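Handoff note, outgoing to incoming analyst
You'll be picking up this chain. Sequence as last confirmed:
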Amino acid sequence: MVQVINATRRKFFRPFERDLRDFLSKVMDIEGSDKEVVVVLVGNSRMRHLNEKFLFKKGTTDVISFDYGDTAEVYVNVDYAIRLGDFAFYTGYLALHGLLHVLGYDHKRKDMARQMEEKQEAYAGLWKYS
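Most recent structure output, in case you need it:
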């Protein structure tokens, strides 16, 4: 199950959050995962706080994932997505990236990075938003 929470002051068009939830749920179905995932849309300030407090890195970042076993949280920086140009596309793309991390994919090792990139590109083609 995927839940999307808008923790920003921004107002998104209603179908967007539903479309994002449905997209990520479809990826989880394909991957055979029944993990409960909460995707939290945040801005630069909240992302900077998370990055510094939990990852001990200065500044903001695009996406952070926390995997707790049967549940997970994916934080997506919508300000970053907006800077990239196409807010809806990049928010979905970053959420997908974070989801793949909680599903066990990583890009630290070269062989895993290739596999993660291939999955991300294939699944990105499923991302349709209103």
